[in-house]
Structures are given as structure tokens and as C-alpha cells.
Write a structure and sequence with these properties.
globular; alpha/beta
């Protein structure tokens, strides 16, 4: 079930993966008219970047992830913020039918999938979700910008070159953020019976320190690719030498692919 993003990788994920601007949460809430009676499923919830703030706007949230360490850290984040209406479930997209027992009779108000759908069988998942979603509810596939090494900036190109040399492979995967990915997901949502598929964009600018950047890189590495604790200082030194000076400015576009049922 696990994808190899537990242990120290989950720790880096919790610390360095950015959250979402309030405008993103507003857009999701508005798209499905979510209110205090709704249950929202956050599938592939990671350490709670969407689940925790969404829980403050709806009746309850089910946060599901295949990595136990991700859920542990998400639970800690929710507790620190005083959020108590989230049920954390160890599971993957194939476990969603069994999670139906956690829903109210109204059905799901929404399912949100943030930067995780590329790990899932989206065609089958959307068919299952169509049977669990209330009329007017739907699915939001959220991409919080492109991977840091796929931007057009000088620092991003330098980062990509460094990582390709370190890993010994080209880095071209868009992790579900590219136009072809979004078009494929939109077609699958329509085929599953969802309607009114539309893309909502929220733009913001982020400024990263070097520590932010290297922490984000570590958060994207499976455990077996993560440099050992002893090797990380040398890795960071080589990376710093390969990059222009900080700060590293990102113009981020959050893409929300939203589709409703009925």
C-alpha cells in the first residue's frame, strides 16, 4: 500500500510542503456549496495541507493516505490547531469503497485530491466517487504549481540539471500538473458522470530560502532515494554551489479542476 514516502520524507513533507492560499479553499467551498452538514474526503491527504483548513469550513473531513507517517503528522497538525472533526484513515484509492461507512446519508459533499492523483487509477476512482457523492457535490483535483525543477527560471533550470546529474535520469514527469494531465482527468470525470468540468486558477508568488528549497526536494524523494543523514550536508553544499544565490522566487498557479454531480 505505501509508496515509500514515510519516515524522514514525511517529516520533510510536513515541514516544507507549502499549504494553500485561502482563495483556493474559497473556490472549493463555492464550487460545491459546502456547508456544516457536509463530509469531505481528502484522498492522498499527506500531512493535512488541505484537510486541516477545509475541516474548519465543513461538518467533517475524512483524510486518507497510504503512508502511516503522513497521517501521524497530519493528526499532530490538526491537534495543534484545535481541529477535531477529521477522521484519519490509512488507505489508498482502492480502499475508497470501504470508506463509505464513514459518510453520512447525504453522501460526500466533495472529494479533494491535492498533488496525488498521478499515483492513482483515476478512471476507476472517479466511477466509485460518482456513487458516493451527493447531488451538487463533486471532485476537485488540485495542483499546487509545477515541481520546482520544471519552471522556466534560471534557478529552476539549475536545480533540474543538478538533480538529473545526481539521480542519473531525466526529470520530465509533471506529477499531474501539466496540461495533458488535466485534459485526461477532465475527460475521465465526464466519463464517470460528473458535469460542468471547469478549471479554476489561483495565482500567488512564493519566495523560498535555500533551506526551503532543499527541504522541498527531500520531501519529493522516496525513502530509498533520500540521501542519508551523513550525506545530506555534502548534498546541500553541492546544490548550493550549483544554484544562483537565494531567494528563489516562484510564480505559482494553483489549478483546481472541479466537476459536479447532477
Amino acid at each position: 500500500m505505501a509508496l515509500g514516502f514515510g519516515g524522514e520524507v514525511a517529516e520533510y513533507y510536513a515541514r516544507f510542503r507549502r499549504g494553500y492560499p485561502p482563495a483556493v479553499l474559497d473556490a472549493i467551498q463555492d464550487a460545491f456549496a459546502l456547508d456544516g452538514d457536509d463530509v469531505v474526503l481528502d484522498l492522498g491527504c499527506g500531512t493535512g495541507q488541505l484537510a486541516v483548513p477545509l475541516a474548519e469550513r465543513v461538518g467533517s473531513v475524512v483524510g486518507m493516505d497510504p503512508e502511516a507517517d503522513m497521517l501521524r503528522l497530519a493528526r499532530e497538525t490538526a491537534a495543534a490547531r484545535g481541529v477535531r472533526n477529521i477522521t484519519w484513515v490509512l488507505g489508498a484509492d482502492t480502499d475508497v469503497p470501504a470508506a463509505g461507512v464513514l459518510l453520512n446519508r447525504r453522501g460526500l459533499g466533495a472529494t479533494v485530491i491535492g498533488q496525488a492523483l498521478h499515483w492513482m487509477d483515476h478512471d476507476e476512482l472517479f466511477r466509485v466517487l460518482a456513487s458516493l457523492t451527493r447531488i451538487g457535490g463533486g471532485v476537485a483535483v488540485v495542483a499546487n504549481g509545477e515541481p520546482a525543477w520544471l519552471h522556466g527560471t534560471d534557478w529552476s533550470r539549475a536545480l533540474r540539471s543538478f538533480l538529473e546529474d545526481h539521480l542519473g535520469q531525466r526529470l520530465t514527469a509533471t506529477c499531474g500538473t501539466g496540461p495533458a494531465d488535466r485534459e485526461r482527468y477532465a475527460g475521465a470525470l465526464e466519463a464517470a458522470g460528473f458535469e460542468g468540468v471547469r478549471e479554476i486558477a489561483v495565482d500567488y508568488r512564493d519566495e523560498l530560502t535555500f533551506d526551503d528549497l532543499v527541504g522541498g526536494v527531500y520531501s519529493a524523494m522516496p525513502v530509498d532515494a533520500l540521501p542519508t543523514a551523513a550525506d545530506r550536508p555534502a548534498f546541500a553544499t553541492r546544490l548550493r554551489e550549483a544554484l544562483p544565490p537565494a531567494p528563489y522566487v516562484e510564480d505559482v498557479r494553483v489549478s483546481i479542476l472541479a466537476a459536479r454531480l447532477g
